[in-house]
Amino acid sequence: MRFYLVRHGKTEFNLARRFQGGAVDSPLLPESIINAQKVGSYLADLKFAGAFASPQERAVVTAQNIVDQWEVVPKIKKIADLREMNFGKWDGDLVAAHQGEELFEQFLKYPSQFEGEKLGGENYYQFTHRVQAGLKSIFEEGFKAEENVLVAAHALVISFAVKSLLGKSFEEIRATGLVANTSVTVLETNDFNEFKLLDWNNTNFLI
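Given the sequence above, the corresponding structure tokens read:
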């Protein structure tokens, strides 16, 4: 089966460069609704067996605007384990307010050492285990090997779930960058043990 993973559209918090993790939400910008509709048009010729999203509003609204472009509009199922990383007391803060702090340096450059629990949040091990479990729960719903599913989620969720399943280290994942807003990434698996990356961070359809 193939996971079509789409990051939510740009939000007001994204624009303001605020931490936007699992505990906060912010409205999508008007351009993000248009871009989500472009994703839907881009995927409209494919057949999807299901549509899933993080329970956070920015992901659900993105997903709804995607599927609304399809001839057959599936009901979106929310998956709690696909929430964005919990940043604890950082959530909602300006990113610039924490630059230079030791924990911030760990968060960006040395993720395997990041002690998110000191903030009341998650570390990367806890987070990655959770989001992998979220994707596995979708796989275990019993879709056929050749079927496609849509998953609308978040930058860290998609980047770390996909790259960790492909065997990349946390440091490699961070160094190569995160997926962009309303980008499409395609991950294929037949058994949830071996994975093939078919597309990564594709935004060509937004032009």
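DSSP finds seven helices and six strands in the chain. Try to locate this feature in the token string yourself.
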